[in-house]
Each structure stands twice: as C-alpha cells, then as structure tokens.
Amino acid sequence: MKKPIYLDYHATTPCDQRVVDAMIPYFAGEFGNAASRQHVYGWTAEAAVNRARTIIAHAIGGEPASIVFTSGATESNNLALKGICENVRESRNEIITSRTEHSSILDVCSALEKKGFTISFVPVDKIGLVDVVELEKMISPKTAVVSLMAANNEIGTLAPLEEIGAICCKAGVLFHTDASQAFGKILIDVKEMNIDLMSLNAHKMYGPKGVGALFVRTSMHKSKLRPQIHGGGHESGLRAGTLNVPGIVGFGKAVEIAVAERDVESRRISILRDRLQQKLVEIDGAFVNGNSVHRLSGNLNIGFEGVSALSLLVEIKNDIAISTGSACSSADAAAGLASHVLRAVGLSKQAALSCVRVSIGRYTTEDDIQTAVHCLRSAVETLRQQSSQGISFFPPSTTKESQPA
Ligand SMILES: *Cc1c(COP(=O)(O)O)cnc(C)c1O
Questions:
Q1: Fewer CB atoms near the end CB (10 Å): N or C, the chain?
Q2: Is residue 404 assigned to a domain?
Q3: What's the domain range around 305?
Q4: With a threshold of 0.85, does the pTM exceed it?
Q5: CA of 227 relative to ligand 1 center, distance in Å
C-alpha cells in the first residue's frame, strides 16, 4: 500500500539521511562508553559527544558545559521543573506557566501541585500569546520559576521570549522554556533572551527519537537543580546513565544542518504553508487558529465549521497523514476530548473538535500541498453532504467535556 503524504512534522520528523550517516559509525565500530576514561574506545565516544555538545551549545549562544543530555524534551521538562522545585526554599512554592503548554509541562505541574506547589496560569489571548503585562504583575517572592514554551506545538504561536526573559531577569526568578518545536526553526539566544533553562529534543528537527537536552545556565548547576535520575554522576551529576552516543551524535548533526539551512528552509516552508492556508480558507466556514504573524513557518491549524475533525481524518487517512493536535494527546482526541490548547485560546468545544493540525517540513513538496488541498476540500464536502442527509457529525462520545489541564 502506498503510504499517505506525511504532513505531521510537529509530531515528529523523519531523520535526515545526513543525520543517519553521521550516527552509523557509533553503533558498531565506535561503540565506546563515553564515560570510559581508560581507553581509546571511551575517548573516541567522549570526543564525539563533546563535539555535539559544542554544536548544540553554540547554536543557542550557550557554553558547552550548560548542555545536559537527556532522553528527550519530556525528561528535560521533568528535570527542569522538579529539579528546581525540590531545591528551592519553602517560601518559593509557585510555578507560573500557561494553559497552552505541552502535557509534559502541565502534567509535571499537576504532580508538583500534589506536593504542595501552587500553579498559576498566565492568561493567553485568542492567538495564543501570553499576556506579558499580566505575567509581570503575577511574579512575586513566592515564584520559583516561570515556564513558558517557545513555540506552541498545536497552533505554532511563537512566544516573545526576549520580553519574558527580561521580566523574569528583572524580577530575579528563573525562566524555563520548552523549545521542542522552536529549536532549529527560529533563532534562540539564551543570553540575549535571559533563558535560565531550556528543553530541547532531536526528533522534532530531523534527528533521532529518544535524545534531547536541557540547557542549564552553568551558574545554577547543582546549587539550584536537583537531579531526577541518580547513578554514576554523568552530565555534571545532573543526569546519570550511560550516554546515548549515536543519538547524541545525530542530534549534533541535526542541529548543524538546521543552523546552516534554517533561513532558506523556513522561507520555503512558509510559502508552502501560506499557499495551503490560502486555498483552504476558501472552503465555506473555514477558520485558522493561532497567530498569523508570529507563527512557526510549517504550522497550520484550521477548523471547518460543522465538520468533525475525527471524521475528516478517517476520510483522508489513505492520502495525507495529519492530526487533530498533539500526538501526546491523540488518545484524548480519540475519546472525543477537545484540545486543551484550542479551549485555552477561547474556542468552544464544538469548534475545537472541528480543527486539524497540518504541519509542513523539510520534505514537503508543492505537489504534496496540492494533494492536501484537494483531499481536504473533497473530504469536507463529502462530510457536509452526509450531514445534510442526516448522518451525524458528532458521535455521542464527542460531547464529553475536556479534562481541565
Ligand atoms: C514533542 C514535544 C515534547 C515532548 O518531547 P519528547 O522529546 O518527545 O519527549 C515536549 N514539548 C513540546 C512542545 C513538544 O512539541
């Protein structure tokens, strides 16, 4: 069977062949443990890890020593928030975040709430932008950390990182950002943006799955961050465990490519996205979510009034692979729960359940876009015809209320 065209780059990306080629020597030939200090196998592995560390650090304006390798952004988010909260004075018991964050932030916050922390949410507007004026007012001596994502994984909205960083810096609170979707696509400078901690991963930027990093400003190592995985003291004692050398090498290669090709690539991708959007908004009752200016170049989150997104996905599944939102909450979607992000930006449950996320990337072609336009248009038409014949769009299960984040 011919596979459908992949337009779900926010869920994950294929590994770039150049990344695969860079990784291969480190599986069998150069298989050493980067922590082995006593022979050449270890030295070679350690050198490869440190090359990747330097590439990644330089890509964000940080120092190599500030990169802590992890298994991905979920782990990085856990290490950042739990690591801070377990090490702060008792009086600092508040985390400020937003309702549009990824579940790997919101669920960590819920876990910390059960341990006595207060979670406060900065308001977001209709396009997913956090209210920085309100953020400034909310920060108090009780605040341990502000955690706000760099780019939203559903609607693509880019956060004003520099403004948020300046506010946090002035108030003397830590600023963490989940940059899983933004890294490699927009310019991020941890110094200029006053970012203290930043979660990164490889598999959203054409690197391998299961590898990521937490940038931790070196001045706050150890003193302010409690490790979550204890063991052999790897990664400056912040994350124990034998390093995933091939994965880290691949991550480094993916970053090198992203830095070199970012500008040209994002221009090409945004042209494709704009073309797709232009064609799809011509459909009756179509509406676009998110920010039309400050948005990830490959992101299009679009709804079709009166059409169930789940039915739409079934209709097109052999032709294009898209989603209703985060891969991490597709079980929720299957259960008829509306996206917490779309609800947070003010969509009704019904409207949220009619939205799909199309995400475009490195291997998307103009032909793919044409196919997507054609498929979505005819699927919407088919579903509307069925509905006018009395076939229900919204099966009863879709009327369940979304769980509060
Ligand atoms: C994908 C994603 C994550 C989770 O990253 P993993 O590396 O898969 O654990 C976290 N946050 C955002 C915004 C994401 O898009």
A1: N
A2: no
A3: 5-11+262-399
A4: yes
A5: 20
